[in-house]
Design goal:
The chain has 83 residues and is mainly β. Strand 2 and strand 3 form a beta hairpin.
């Protein structure tokens, strides 16, 4: 992965999220939403690291940096919403 300079991007929101990867697997991630990208980080010891994730039965690799132009979203995901 190339060097990622987050200071070049405008931060809109950040926080923790539980990501359901399929097959009952869940991963706690720290998410940073920028104007043009989403960055997924996972806590390892006392720091945040970037990791790739395999999603679904097709085992598609998703990198930790996702460009918003390439993202497909749906209004509501399956499951219950918690506040």
């Amino acid at each position: 992965m190339q060097n990622l300079d987050l200071m070049r991007h405008k931060l809109l929101q950040d926080g923790r999220m539980t990501w359901r990867l399929g097959g009952g697997k869940q991963v706690d991630v720290q998410v940073a939403l920028f104007a043009d990208i989403i960055v997924l980080m996972q806590r390892h010891e006392d720091r945040l690291v970037l990791r790739s994730y395999n999603v679904g039965i097709t085992k598609i690799d998703h990198g930790p940096v996702i460009k918003l132009q390439e993202l497909i979203v749906q209004p509501y995901a399956a499951g219950t919403w918690c506040s």
